[in-house]
Amino acid sequence: MPSSSTGLSVNDEKKYIGILFFLFAVQIMSWVPRFPEVKANLGLSNGEFGTYLSLGSVGAVIAMLSSGHFVHKLGARKVLILSTLSMCLAISAVVHLQSAPIFIIVNIINGASVSAFNTALNAQAFHAQDRAGEMILSRQHGYWTVGAVATAILSGFMVEFVGIALHINVLSAVLFFAILYIIKKLGPELIQPSPEDDSDFGFKDLFTSFRIDYLVSAALVCGIMVEFATSDWSAIYAKETIGVRGSLATIPYILTFTAMIIGRLGQHRLTPYIPLEKLVRIGSVVGGVGFIGFIMASSLLVDYSKTLAYICTLIGFAIGGLCSSILSPTFFTAANKRSSQPSAVVVGQMGVINAILVLCVKTIIAWTAQFTGSIAIALIIPGLMLISVAFMSRVTKGI
């Protein structure tokens, strides 16, 4: 995809993209550690809350089906700005809600906004990666994880002293203007509308041009479900199953994403010595087994020692986070390498399949927790999925 003629240096482009990943994470993850409060405001059970939360994937599918083409056709600037506005408004609104139907609608809008921004930002990261001539996506996703941890720490502090509405509303307003400022700084290298685009590209072309890389899609969803399950359930698990108080309930989430930062920012130090395919294979097995083993141990130990159960919880989530950390950027890079389509379109199409599969798996996890009465049993599902990545690691050859 073309960028403008007067460009930034590669290092500046990488820097600003990294800052956008950081701010993006701070915004979209800001309310995650406060899910127990959102669930309580809505008066929902675990199964209901997990299902309604998963419906954000409906918006994600709609956005990803089209946003890649919009980035290619209209350029990244418009997509980034519009999605930033709707994302900040949706997250600001959702923490005020006490009506489940309205929550579903706002969450779908939020899912669409997040997905559109994510597609445009990852396409821009591929642009920088092509300019740099090296794999930088893992490090860029590492900056996203830094933002997720930063906002979790902030939320863990705020939960004791500040109401959820004040916390999220002020933060969203500040982040809206911060993101717009960085978009402006990126301006010289933002992806421009493609000059060879066919102006007659229509709605039906969204479907006729759709391509599915089945192996990469399966590997991606299996590799990221520990991360998604941690975001959705770690605070609830620590609070309701282990029985720790508010701020301590956010520590498993913080520790998991800290481990992911280490993995993503440190990947380039390992790949000169360990082939990427082998690294993916070993990490998925160790991560899946460790995640399942320590989470199950924590649920069995809670009646005997809450402290020991809590330690096992922390270890389990941290192992899962560390060992799955490189999978998402690695599989997105693999998908881009294996496709002849523009990177924004690849990201969007991968996102559609991923969002549908994630919606299904999240719903299964939520209702497994509801019907069994055990979040620990439900978390076996993402652990097994992570282990299965070992059998699909060959997609990383040649990247």
Structural commentary:
With 399 residues, the chain is mainly α. The chain has a single domain, classed as MFS general substrate transporter like domains (Growth Hormone, Chain: A). It is built from 17 helices and no strands. It has helices spanning 10-28, 35-42, 46-54, 56-74, 76-94, 100-132, 137-161, 164-186, 205-208, 214-242, 251-270, 276-301, 306-324, 327-338, 343-372, 375-378, 380-388. Helix 10 (214-242) packs antiparallel against helix 13 (306-324). The longest helix is centred in the first third of the chain and has 33 residues, at 100-132. The protein is globular. The two termini are 20 Å apart. The model has no long low-confidence stretch (mean pLDDT 88).
Give me a quick take on this structure.
The protein is an all-alpha fold.
Draw up the topology in text.
Elements: H1 10-28, H2 35-42, H3 46-54, H4 56-74, H5 76-94, H6 100-132, H7 137-161, H8 164-186, H9 205-208, H10 214-242, H11 251-270, H12 276-301, H13 306-324, H14 327-338, H15 343-372, H16 375-378, H17 380-388
If you compute it from the alpha carbons, what radius of gyration comes out, rounded to the nearest whole angstrom? 20 Å
* Element-by-element helix/strand order: HHHHHHHHHHHHHHHHH
Report the mean per-residue pLDDT as an integer.
88
Number of strands: 0
Q: Output the CATH homologous superfamily.
A: MFS general substrate transporter like domains
The biggest beta sheet, please? none
CATH class annotation: Mainly Alpha
- Total DSSP helices: 17
Number of domains: 1
| % residues in beta strands | under 5%
Second rung of CATH, namely the architecture? Up-down Bundle
Low-confidence stretches: none
CATH-assigned fold name:
Growth Hormone, Chain: A
> Between the first and last Cα atoms, what is the distance in angstroms?
20 Å
GO molecular function: transmembrane transporter activity
Subcellular location: Membrane
Pfam family, one: MFS_1
Membrane topology: Multi-pass membrane protein
